[in-house]
Amino acid sequence: MPADPWRLHGGAIAAAAHSFGIPVSDWLDLSTGISPHSYPVPPLPLQTWHCLPDAGATARLQAVAASYYGAPGPTCVLPVAGTQAAIQWLPRILGPAQDVAILAPTYAEHARAWAAAGHRVHTVARVEDIPSACRTLVIVNPNNPDGRVLTAAQVLALAERHCVVVDEAFADVMPEVSVAGHCDRAPLIVLRSIGKFFGLAGLRLGFVIAAPALIAQLAEAQGPWAVSGPALAIGSEALVDAGWIAAARASLARAAHRLDALLAAAGLTVIGGTDLFRLATDADARGLFDHLARNGILVRPFTDQPQWLRFGLPGDDAAFARLEAALRSRPAVTLGLLRAVDT
Ligand SMILES: Cc1ncc(COP(=O)(O)O)c(C=O)c1O
């Protein structure tokens, strides 16, 4: 039985291909916040593939990452196999069952992982609504999917009262919001990802940035060789490539702007996002999702917010043109619905 495409996670191209009968290779995947421009991965010596990753490679990446993220030092940085690995581990090692607040709506894996580890999860729409029993607070900043941003000062103020886990998976395009530099002083745990901005989600590399004692605890929990040698090597090159990083930031900002214009011209209302994805509302988002999918374009729907669609960035002119053509060819019934709502 094929999965209901409306309920798919981002990036579920194989399931969409099955549901809509379109080969995987024919899809334009706009369902994630992964940059369409991957960091140009260098060829690696056979040795890197052949040997277990050594401590030197880990130490090199810790130093490079501390500098890129502005962490207090390499002992505050732990490479992990994608941010998701830390999202899974943290609830299990951060003490006995407790009340945990999560600023929502957000990336659903946080609530799932804390609940699965036996904690009592409270999702709150505003920081003002955090129940007083909650010692721990989870924030995605900037947020996925709506791009809500707390300033670094606001996050640090929250860390005066809570242990704050800040998922900064999308902060590469907004480095000014990061609190990574404060992790040794405040009860702050920052998560960073190589998957999104560097377009390397398949590499499975991310970081936890926190006080050295917690980093040591997490390193112990994940065990040896949790991050592959190729990931350590590629991460060490990508994070020091200042020219590529600056060019990527500029090009993502241009693409996000262009996407906003295209969506607005098609009658959607852009309500938020970051330079890695845009969130739009539509009176018939479900109809539009299906129409785009029948044209081989996958975007991200939200079952609990049925008027929302999240769009990743098209990677080139051809992808923009394909999206534009599909939006223009929207069936009259959907357009009619839109007009009825407009008036
Ligand atoms: C907010 C957020 N954090 C973390 C992740 C997982 O990222 P990674 O590929 O680093 O595991 C995602 C993936 O979509 C995400 O949206």
Kindly describe this structure:
- Pathway: Cofactor biosynthesis; adenosylcobalamin biosynthesis.
- GO terms for molecular function: pyridoxal phosphate binding; threonine-phosphate decarboxylase activity.
- Decarboxylates L-threonine-O-3-phosphate to yield (R)-1-amino-2-propanol O-2-phosphate, the precursor for the linkage between the nucleotide loop and the corrin ring in cobalamin.
- By secondary structure, the chain is of the alpha/beta class.
- The protein folds into 2 domains: 5-37 and 244-329, Aspartate Aminotransferase, domain 1 (Alpha-Beta Complex); 46-240, Type I PLP-dependent aspartate aminotransferase-like (Major domain) (Aspartate Aminotransferase, domain 2, 3-Layer(aba) Sandwich), CATH 3.40.640.
- 38% of the residues lie in helices and 16% in strands.
- It has 12 helices and 13 strands.
- The chain has helices at residues 13-20, 46-50, 55-69, 83-93, 109-116, 152-158, 212-222, 229-238, 242-265, 285-294, 317-328, 332-342, and strands spanning 28-29, 77-80, 99-103, 120-124, 136-140, 163-167, 188-193, 206-209, 269-274, 277-281, 297-298, 300-301, 308-312.
- A 7-stranded mixed sheet has the order 2-8-7-6-5-3-4, sandwiched between helices.
- It is globular, with a radius of gyration of 21 Å.
- The model is unreliable at 338-343 (pLDDT under 50).
- The structure holds pyridoxal-5'-phosphate (PLP).
- Pyridoxal-5'-phosphate binds next to helix 4.
- Residues 82-84, 107, 140, 144, 167, 169, 193, 195, 201, 206 line the site of pyridoxal-5'-phosphate.
